[in-house]
UniProtKB/TrEMBL annotation, chain A:
<feature type="transmembrane region" description="Helical">
    <location>
        <begin position="158"/>
        <end position="177"/>
    </location>
</feature>
<feature type="transmembrane region" description="Helical">
    <location>
        <begin position="61"/>
        <end position="80"/>
    </location>
</feature>
<dbReference type="GO" id="GO:0016887">
    <property type="term" value="F:ATP hydrolysis activity"/>
</dbReference>
<dbReference type="GO" id="GO:0005886">
    <property type="term" value="C:plasma membrane"/>
</dbReference>
<keyword id="KW-0812">Transmembrane</keyword>
<keyword id="KW-0547">Nucleotide-binding</keyword>
<keyword id="KW-0472">Membrane</keyword>
<dbReference type="InterPro" id="IPR051120">
    <property type="entry name" value="ABC_AA/LPS_Transport"/>
</dbReference>
<feature type="transmembrane region" description="Helical">
    <location>
        <begin position="203"/>
        <end position="224"/>
    </location>
</feature>
From TrEMBL, chain B:
<dbReference type="InterPro" id="IPR001851">
    <property type="entry name" value="ABC_transp_permease"/>
</dbReference>
<feature type="transmembrane region" description="Helical">
    <location>
        <begin position="62"/>
        <end position="83"/>
    </location>
</feature>
<feature type="transmembrane region" description="Helical">
    <location>
        <begin position="323"/>
        <end position="341"/>
    </location>
</feature>
<keyword id="KW-1133">Transmembrane helix</keyword>
<feature type="transmembrane region" description="Helical">
    <location>
        <begin position="20"/>
        <end position="42"/>
    </location>
</feature>
<protein>
    <submittedName>
        <fullName>ABC transporter permease</fullName>
    </submittedName>
</protein>
<dbReference type="Pfam" id="PF02653">
    <property type="entry name" value="BPD_transp_2"/>
</dbReference>
<feature type="transmembrane region" description="Helical">
    <location>
        <begin position="155"/>
        <end position="179"/>
    </location>
</feature>
<keyword id="KW-0472">Membrane</keyword>
Length: 598, 351
């Protein structure tokens, strides 16, 4: 943010309306700029919602309407201050968004937009039929906003308030995304399962983002009501809700500045088309929708990132989060003494219909021990793994961790108790840097150990009150990256690493959870010989530090040399258990792997 | 409200509900085969109704121009696709004339047939046939132009495309049909008395056609090879492709069926209510509410849901007519809540 382009932008914004006579901006352009600002605020929310978090709403215009009608009604019917109108409007909007969000977030992604279409339509008809809101005529004679005793009566005066809000909205969203909850939000699109396994309550985070976007829309509505001094239902109908989404998509749905650009392009284009199309077609009507619709489809087919990337090239590359040289360490959880039982499976069983995938399997993992879970393909290793990590729920039996039952807990609760994991198919955020990926692992932690409110922190990151904590998190991530030997790639995009390095990155991320027990799902798959050796060395080092490890693995050499204890499964049943050298001689194991002698 | 009013409302509700049911089926069909949430479904309703209305007033329907224009665009896109592909370019001598036949000759022929016949006083069946001839081919062309290039994109992106298409089609509807609404002639002026309740012939027509269409669809999906291919594509696109089912063809077929059902709904509903260029959208969305009740997957539940929407609309227009749309569209919230509470589905990541 602290670059010269942003400062130039601010200066241009500030002097535009007050330029002296010959180059004085005409009233017409001030009005247009005001509308661009109002629309930008809504579109910024949509960028957060659609581009970053992977959801969509067509109902933002209805939220704008809530904000506008709330202040219009309070100020005209009760003579209340516009500032009270703002507060009430934001509260009502947040509550409505909370309800809609909470209902739809557990469903597949397309139910939210469908829900918002219905909601946008319903609210439009409600505004148009309520007696006290003036039916389709709306409310008139809304007072002006007064700021520090100054009445903002003209468009030129409102201009400053509107654009200050736009800049604040941009900065707030940028701040939010560059923080601990921001990383969780960025993981919502395409990384839901991973984020849950790192302790993020993804459904709640989605609701937070949806409410945030709705509140931005409500603020835009408040400004609109006091700029226009009148409201009626038309600007809040579904078509406008759709136009807001167009703005975000045209500008570039994954760039915050793209929202402002998109709002500018569409507002100017619409103004132009509304003048020219009726002349061409010889009739009156909203013909610009044809151009908008076709434009949108073409953009999605040929330039899915919108127009911003073409502009973005002239600006310096996005600043990547940098780890500090020095920071206070995060708190650690108390670790059990070596030899103490950490994980116990007691007759764990998983049935899929008639198929018994895991058949009453029991074993234990002790602190400071590396346990290998092996078996031929289809033996039920991964299912067992998923039972422990909470991805699947056991049909029967008990799984307990440090004496506490965990077999009914969701995966984000399990990681909270100290089980860090990796995935068989690597799950990273490929666009994020290695550092940020690992920092997601530290999501649950703060300086005292476990955070008391793990899903909170949105406000403090918007207001930049989290910098000290952010430094600690990034420092911890850096430490773990160096620990696993990926220090040279700290600021590379995670997607650019080789598969073997991505697996190591997953281990660093799991270590950032400060786990007592590390669960590794085929960590050596896809690794070259040297990399396997390095991985084995790393795991031995971790073990010496008191870490317990449970790993599922195919590579026999790797397992035999590394583990202290082996559990062998076949067809869902445990067939052998013990020291690697004993298991190797076990006839049942030999038969399972090499086939029996008839 | 006495019993006879209740019965009349029920009759109205079931009649419009049957129309919504057809739309709901089309929406579920398109969604399951192509993952497209087909918002523009409603535009086919208004295009169908208003094209028929134009023909009935002996006017030349401007949808003919649109068909030709879409045909030309499709031809250009398809031909460009052939010429860009090195393998297919060798076959260009054979492929291009076929494309020209499908996308240039056919729409232009339809254009002239309609122009020749439009000023005449035609029997209703011919009018309906001409309407179908003009509007239905737009379905597969729309798929080719808007959706096929993005067939592998996420559901969300396809939904945004749908909204763009809806915008464009509504605007074009305004250009072609103007802002005034139209009604078409009823299929039947007969009325029947069953006990104390009067049943209109038109309602019976609507119900009859809907039931026939639903049965036809059932047999099509259950018995015919192409119907089974569509179902296979719905279950697993990759798997379907591996056994030789073209997903592009499946998409085109789904859109053709959706267009047929949409136009049919337009023809059925136009004698009951006045249709404007933008009415189709709301009608389509009510079909949507029905489809969502079925979770966008179940055909029978979607159809029942649509009937429920029709009944709710009919009764709420009696109790609180100004709030009828509010009530119908707010219904979706408890439905979504119910789906949310009953679904055990773990969100696997898309994209």
């Amino acid at each position: 943010m602290k670059n010269k382009y942003f400062l130039i932008f601010l200066v241009v914004l500030a002097v535009l309306p007050v330029l002296p006579a010959p180059v004085r901006l005409p009233e017409y352009w001030v009005t247009l700029l005001n509308y661009i600002g109002l629309y930008s605020i809504v579109a910024i929310g949509l960028v957060l919602l659609t581009g970053v978090a992977g959801m969509t709403s067509f109902g933002q215009a209805a939220f704008v309407g809530l904000g506008a009608y709330a202040t219009a009604y309070l100020t005209t019917a009760y003579g209340a201050s516009p500032w009270l109108g703002l507060i009430v409007g934001v509260i009502i909007t947040a509550a409505a968004a909370l309800v809609i969000g909470a209902i739809t977030m557990r469903l597949s992604g397309h139910f939210l937009p469908l829900g918002t279409i219905a909601w946008g339509l319903a609210l439009y008809y409600l505004f148009g039929n309520l007696e006290f809101l003036g039916k389709y005529d709306g409310l008139n004679d809304i007072p002006t906003i007064s700021l520090f005793g100054k009445e903002l009566a003209s468009g030129r005066q409102m201009y400053y308030l509107i654009w200050i809000v736009v800049v604040l909205a941009v900065v707030s969203v940028k701040n939010l995304l560059d923080s601990r909850p921001g990383r969780a939000i960025r993981a919502l699109k395409g990384g839901g399962v991973m984020a849950e396994a790192m302790g993020v309550n993804t459904a709640w985070m989605k609701v937070v983002v949806f409410v945030y976007a709705a509140v931005l829309a409500a603020i835009s509505g408040w400004l609109y009501a006091h700029l226009q001094r009148a409201v009626n239902p038309t600007p809040f109908n579904l078509n406008h809700g759709i136009e807001y989404l167009f703005m975000a998509v045209v500008g570039g749905v994954s760039h915050v500045w793209g929202a402002v650009l998109g709002a500018a392009i569409l507002t100017v284009l619409k103004d132009y088309l509304q003048n020219i199309l009726p002349m061409l077609l010889g009739a009156n009507g909203n013909f610009e929708t044809i151009v908008f619709g076709v434009l949108l489809v073409l953009l999605l087919q040929y330039a899915r990132d919108g127009v911003w990337p073409f502009f973005g090239k002239i600006f310096p590359a996005r600043r990547v989060a940098k780890a500090p040289e020095q920071a206070d360490p995060l708190g650690h959880r108390a670790k059990p003494a070596v030899g103490e039982v950490v994980l116990t499976l007691d007759k764990a069983r998983k049935e899929f219909g008639g198929l018994v995938a895991v058949n009453d399997v029991s074993f234990q993992v002790k602190a400071g021990e590396i346990v290998g879970l092996i078996g031929p393909n289809g033996a039920g290793k991964s299912t067992t793994f998923n039972l422990v990590t909470g991805v699947l729920q056991a049909t029967r039996g008990e799984i307990s961790f440090l004496g506490e039952r965990i077999d009914r807990l969701p995966s984000r609760e399990i990681v909270k108790r100290g089980i860090g994991r990796t995935f068989q198919h690597v799950r990273l955020m490929p666009q994020m840097s290695v550092l940020e990926n690992v920092a997601i692992g530290a999501y649950l932690r703060d300086k005292n150990g476990l955070r008391r409110r793990p899903q909170g922190g949105v406000w403090s990151s918007v207001l930049r009150l989290d910098r000290q904590e952010e430094a600690m998190l990034l420092y911890e991530a850096k430490r773990q990256i160096e620990r696993v030997g990926l220090g040279a790639h700290m600021y590379d995009e995670a997607g650019s690493l080789a598969l073997g390095q991505q697996r190591i990155l997953e281990i660093a991320r799991a270590l950032a959870c400060d786990p007592t027990l590390l669960l590794l799902d085929e960590p050596a798959a896809g690794l070259r010989y040297k990399e396997k050796q390095a991985l084995a060395d790393l795991l031995k080092k971790l073990k010496d530090e008191g870490m317990s490890v449970l790993l599922v693995e195919h590579d026999m050499d790797f397992v035999m040399n590394l583990t202290d204890h082996l559990v062998v499964m076949e067809f869902g049943t445990k067939i052998a258990e013990g020291l690697p050298e004993d298991v190797q001689k076990n006839p049942a194991v030999l038969e399972a792997y090499l086939g029996g002698v008839e | 409200m006495d019993l006879s009013i209740a019965a009349i409302l029920a009759q109205d509700g079931i009649t419009t509900g049957a129309i919504y049911a057809l739309l709901a089926l089309a929406l579920v069909l398109v969604f399951s085969v192509t993952r497209v949430i087909f918002i523009p479904q409603g535009e086919f309703v208004s295009y169908g109704a208003l094209t028929l209305a134009a023909l009935q007033t002996q006017k030349f329907p401007l949808t003919s121009w649109m068909l030709v224009a879409m045909g030309v665009c499709t031809f250009v896109v398809e031909t460009a696709g052939v010429l860009r592909h090195s393998e297919r370019r060798k076959l260009a001598g054979r492929l291009v004339p076929t494309l020209a036949g499908k996308y240039l000759v056919f729409p232009i022929a339809a254009f002239f047939v309609v122009r020749a016949l439009a000023p005449m006083n035609l029997p209703m069946l011919v009018q309906i046939a001409l309407t179908m001839l003009l509007v239905v081919p737009m379905g597969p062309m729309l798929y080719r132009l808007a959706y096929q290039p993005l067939a592998e994109a996420s559901t969300l992106l396809l939904l945004i495309v749908s909204v763009g298409v809806h915008f464009a089609l509504t605007g074009l509807g305004l250009v072609m049909f103007g802002a005034e609404g139209s009604r078409t002639q009823a299929f039947s002026d007969a009325n029947f008395n069953i006990g104390s309740v009067m049943v209109s012939g038109q309602s019976l027509w609507v119900l009859g056609v809907s039931v026939v269409m639903i049965l036809a669809l059932y047999f099509y999906f259950d018995r015919s090879l192409s119907g089974k291919a569509l179902r296979a594509t719905a279950v697993n696109r990759l798997g379907a492709r591996l056994v030789g089912i073209g997903t592009v063809q499946a998409g085109r077929l789904a859109f053709t069926l959706a267009a047929v059902l949409g136009v049919l709904c337009g023809i059925l509903i136009a004698p009951i209510t006045t249709i404007y260029y933008e009415s189709g959208f709301l009608i389509g969305l009510k079909g949507f509410v029905g489809a969502i009740i079925g979770g966008l997957v179940s055909y029978p539940v979607a159809a029942l849901g649509a009937i429920l929407v029709g009944l709710l609309e009919s009764y709420s227009s009696f109790w609180a007519s100004a709030y009828k749309e509010v009530i119908v569209f707010t219904l979706i919230l408890p439905v979504l809540l119910w789906l949310s509470l009953t679904s055990k589905h773990v969100e696997e990541d898309e994209e």
